[in-house]
Amino acid sequence: MMLESSFPSERGKVSSALEQASSYGLTLARTWAFSDGGPWPLQLSPGSYNESMFKALDFVISEARRNKIYLILSLVNNYESFGGRKQYVQWGRERGQNVSSDDGFYTNDVIKGYYKNHVKTVLTRINTVTGLAYKDDPTIFAWELINEPRCESDLSGRTFQAWIEEMAAYVKSIDNKHLLEIGMEGFYGDSMQGRRQFNPNGYVFGTDFISHNQVQGIDFATIHAYPDLWLANWSSGDQLRFLQNWTQIHVSDSSTILKKPLLFTEFGKSLKPPGSTVNQRDAFYGQVYGSAFVSAEDEGPLGGGLFWQLLAQGMDGLRDSYEIVPTEQRSTASIISQISRRISGLNNRRRHG
Fold it and tell me: Where in the numbering of this chain does the Glycoside hydrolase family domain appear (predicted)?
C-alpha cells in the first residue's frame, strides 16, 4: 500500500481498497513499513530516508484510521523483494563488513545496528497527516520484526532465537504500548522435534515456532499457510487436510504451551496452477476462517486471519493470482465478510456482557 500511495494519482485506489475492506467487515490489515534500496526506496541507505515515500506510509496509516482498520506493520523482509536482509548485508559489505551470507543480518553488529536504526526511525516517526508518532498511534495494532524469517546457516534455531531476544527487547524499549510479533510461518524446530512431522515436506529453516514465540516481549504467535506452494503435487483435498492439521496443532500449542494468542497473518491460494478453481479457493478460505471462528467462539487462541492479498480495481500491477478484488471475486469476498462479521459479533457480545 505504501508503494501504491507514493504515486499521488494512485492514492484513490488505496483509499478504495481500505473502504471496501471496511465495508466487508474487515478490521485488521498487514502491510510493509520497509522498502530498502532499489527503485522505490523508503530507506535509501542506512539511516537515510526518502521523505516522499514516508509520507506515502503516513497516508496509508491515516486512511486505515479513517476506515477503522488496525494495522500490523512489518519492519523488514526476509526475501530480497523490497531490499530485505540481502540489502542490509550488501550495505554492510559496502562499508567494510566481512559477511559470508545473508544470515549475517542476524549476527553482524554493524548490520544489526542498521536494523535497529530503522526500527527507531519508523516507531518514532511523526505522521504528517495525523500528527501522531507511530509509537503512539492506536491505529497500529502490532509491529512485526521480519516477514517470513529464515536462517538456514543454523538450523538449530539458536542464531535466530538470539536475534529475536535482542530485537524484541529493543522494540519494547521504544514502544511498550503496541503488540509485537515475529512474522513467522509456523515451522517447528529443535525445541520439540516430534512436531517437525507437521512441517510441510519436512521443511526446516532455522526457525522454531515454540521457542521463538516464548521470547519475552513477543505478544502473540503467527502462522502462514500456502499449501499450494508447499505441497504443489498434492490434490486440493489433501491440501485441505494438511491445512486442518497445520491449524489444529498450532492452536493446541498456542493454548497449552505458549499460552499466547495466535493469528493467521498470511494465507492464500493461487488460481494460476492448471485445474485451480474458485470453488477450491473458497473451500480453502472457508476452512481458515471457519477454524478461526470455532476457536474464537470457544475462547481459544486463534482469533482471525489475514489473506494475501486485498486489491482494489485498477491495481493491476500488483496482481499475482492470489489477489482478492471484492467486486470481482464475490463468492470469496462473501465468505470473508460473513466470518469477519460473526467474529466481530462475538467480540461485541463479550464486551457488552
Answer: 10-309
